[in-house]
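Input (structure):
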C-alpha cells in the first residue's frame, strides 16, 4: 500500500481517524501550508490597497504633467547629431539631437519607427518640444511623453489583487468550515474513467461514498495531488446539509487542532 494514499495520520486506509471522532463543531487549526497561504492572501490584500494608492497618485501626477505641458511647452528647432538603426527592428531608429535655449545647449534622444526614406541624417533639423521650466526635458511634438497609468488600470490591478486574496481566503474558509462541521465516512476511489483532459492526459478521478441516511454520492479530486488509484479506500468529509460538498481527508490547509500537552508534575 502507498502510505500517502492508504493512510491518514497513521490510520489504515478507509478507517476513521481518531482526531475526527467526537462531537462537532471540531476544533480546527491551520496547517503549515495553510499558514503560508493565508500570509500570501494577507500580502495580496495589502498589495491591493498599496496598488490603488500608488497608481492613483501616478495617474494624478500624469494629469498634472499634461496640464503643465499644455501651458508651458515651447517648440524649438533641433539639430540631428546621430542616427542609429536598431538591430532588432530595421524600421526603428534612435535619433540623438541638440537644441539651444537661452544660450544653453541641451541634448535629447528619441526612439521611433521611421521608413528609410523619411529618416533624418546628421546635420538635419527637426522640431522638438520642451518645457520652459524644464528645458532639459524634450520630446517630439507629435508624440508627447506618456502621462502615468490610465485611470482604468487603477481598479483593474486593485481588484485583481483583491480577487486573488479573496479566492485564497474563500478556499481556506471552505476547508475550515467543512472540517469543523462535516460528517466523516469511508469512501472508495471508483474504478471508472479518468475525467478531464490536459497536456499529460487526464488529471481527475472520482471517489464515491454513502452519506448518512442517503444514497450514493460521488465527487472528483485532483489525481496529481494524491497518490490514489482505483479501488483504494479513502476517508471522506462531507457537509451534513449538502453531501455534494465533500473532500478527501486530510485537507491541505486545515487540520483538527492538536491537544496541548501539559507537563507532568
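Output (sequence):
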Amino acid at each position: 500500500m502507498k502510505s500517502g494514499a492508504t493512510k491518514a495520520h497513521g490510520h489504515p486506509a478507509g478507517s476513521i481517524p481518531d482526531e475526527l471522532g467526537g462531537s462537532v463543531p471540531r476544533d480546527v487549526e491551520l496547517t503549515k501550508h495553510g499558514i503560508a497561504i493565508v500570509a500570501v492572501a494577507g500580502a495580496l490584500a495589502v498589495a491591493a490597497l498599496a496598488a490603488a494608492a500608488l497608481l492613483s497618485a501616478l495617474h494624478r501626477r500624469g494629469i498634472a504633467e499634461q496640464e503643465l505641458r499644455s501651458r508651458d511647452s515651447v517648440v524649438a528647432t533641433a539639430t540631428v547629431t546621430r542616427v542609429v538603426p536598431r538591430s532588432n527592428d530595421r524600421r526603428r531608429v534612435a535619433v540623438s539631437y541638440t537644441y539651444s535655449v537661452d544660450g544653453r545647449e541641451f541634448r535629447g534622444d528619441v526612439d521611433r519607427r521611421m521608413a528609410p526614406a523619411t529618416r533624418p541624417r546628421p546635420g538635419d533639423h527637426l522640431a522638438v518640444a520642451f518645457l520652459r521650466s524644464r528645458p532639459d526635458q524634450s520630446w517630439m511634438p507629435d508624440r508627447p511623453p506618456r502621462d502615468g497609468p490610465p485611470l482604468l488600470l487603477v481598479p483593474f490591478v486593485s481588484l485583481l489583487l483583491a480577487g486573488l486574496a479573496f479566492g485564497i481566503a474563500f478556499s481556506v474558509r471552505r476547508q475550515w468550515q467543512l472540517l469543523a462541521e462535516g460528517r466523516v465516512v469511508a469512501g472508495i476511489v471508483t474504478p471508472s474513467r479518468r475525467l478531464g483532459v490536459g497536456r499529460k492526459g487526464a488529471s481527475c478521478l472520482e471517489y464515491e461514498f454513502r452519506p448518512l441516511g442517503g444514497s450514493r454520492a460521488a465527487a472528483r479530486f485532483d489525481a496529481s495531488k494524491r497518490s490514489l488509484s482505483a479501488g483504494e479506500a479513502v476517508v471522506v468529509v462531507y457537509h451534513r446539509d449538502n453531501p455534494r460538498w465533500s473532500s478527501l481527508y486530510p485537507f491541505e490547509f486545515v487540520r483538527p487542532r492538536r491537544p496541548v500537552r501539559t507537563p507532568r508534575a
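Notes: The mean pLDDT is 87. The longest strand covers residues 73-86.
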